[in-house]
Structure formats: C-alpha cells, structure tokens
C-alpha cells in the first residue's frame, strides 16, 4: 500500500508542476503602440478598412462613423487599386512613449503618382491631340507603351515620406489617434 501511495503522491506532485508551468504569467500581453500601429497600417494597406477603424481611438470613432470612415477610404477593389496598394510599404523607425501617449515616426513608401502621371500623360497632352480619335488613341498608346516599357525595365517609381502617427493608451490598450 505504501508503494501505491508513494506513486500517487509522486504523480500528483508532477501533475501540479506541469499545470503550474502551463499557467499564463501576468495575464494576456497587451499590444504596445508599435504593435497597434503595425495592425492599423497592415489593415490600411490591405484594404481592410473595418479592421483599421477598430484600431482608432474612441475620440476618432466618436467623430466619424464606420460608414463615414469607409466612404473616405474604400475603393472598388479594382485591379489597379490592388496593384498600387500592393507596392506600398512602411517601416517604423522610432517610437517615443510618454505616459499614455506615443509618437511613431514611420517611413511610408508608395508609388510616385505625380511622376507616373507626368510620364504617362506628358506635360502637355492637349497639344498632341487631333480631330481623329484613332490618331489620339495611337498617341496615348505610344506614350503609355513607352512608360510601361520603362517601368518594366527600371521598376515603378516610388516615393518615401516620413509620417508621424500618434497613439493614445485607452482602457483597452493602445489606439491610433488621427486627431479628430
């Protein structure tokens, strides 16, 4: 009987150690400002604007409804919109936290739309147009074809700008503050 009790005691002790090692320490980890900003930016770049809205501060969500936010940002999900958004990227370079506020300096890179437009359309397209629709079509096709060939060879022109994002710590964690 002693051997059986010793085995039960030993098994119970090992079971307690195992269960204690599986218990979470300190509760669930709350996302920091950098994690929150990454979630927001990933959602924006992927066109998941409802997810992006959920990352906004209470004040921002009170100032604009989800429907209003979606109307400002949503696109038709066209091939061109997805193509362009798929080339956008970001890199968080610095996070400064002061009490319940954070400032994140972020490099945001997108296609250089101004340059693309200038190269595709030209500085003055109107001077090249004629009364012939077929002639105009040829003109546009040649210009677009030259630009397309250049971008295939050299890559799409990109533009990087440093953007500052502000976050606030609320009762349920860090939130992006757009300033509303």
Could you describe the 3D structure shown?
Helix 7 (113-121) packs across helix 8 (133-154). The chain has helices spanning 2-22, 33-46, 49-54, 58-63, 66-73, 79-85, 113-121, 133-154, and strands at residues 89-98, 101-111, 158-170, 173-177. The chain has 180 residues and is of the alpha+beta class. It folds into 2 domains: 32-112 and 165-180, NTF2-like, domain 1 (Nuclear Transport Factor 2, Chain: A), CATH 3.10.450.100; 113-156. It starts with a helix and ends with a strand. Strand 1 and strand 2 (101-111) form a beta hairpin. The protein has a 4-stranded antiparallel sheet. The chain has 8 helices and 4 strands. The longest helix is centred in the last third of the chain and has 22 residues, at 133-154.
């Amino acid at each position: 009987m002693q051997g059986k009790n010793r085995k039960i005691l030993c098994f119970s002790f090992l079971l307690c150690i195992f269960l204690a090692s599986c218990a979470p320490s300190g509760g669930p980890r709350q996302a920091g400002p950098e994690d929150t900003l990454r979630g927001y930016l990933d959602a924006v770049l992927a066109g998941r604007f409802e997810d992006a809205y959920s990352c906004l501060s209470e004040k921002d969500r009170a100032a604009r409804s989800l429907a209003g936010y979606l109307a400002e940002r949503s696109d038709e999900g066209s091939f061109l919109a997805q193509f362009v958004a798929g080339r956008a990227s970001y890199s968080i370079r610095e996070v400064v936290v002061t009490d319940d506020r954070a400032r994140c300096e972020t490099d945001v890179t997108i296609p250089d739309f101004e340059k693309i437009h200038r190269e595709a359309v030209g500085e003055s397209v109107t001077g090249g147009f004629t009364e012939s629709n077929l002639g105009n079509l040829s003109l546009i096709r040649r210009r677009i074809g030259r630009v397309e060939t250049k971008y295939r060879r050299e890559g799409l022109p990109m533009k990087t700008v440093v953007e500052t994002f502000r976050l606030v710590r609320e009762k349920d964690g860090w939130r992006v503050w757009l300033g509303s």
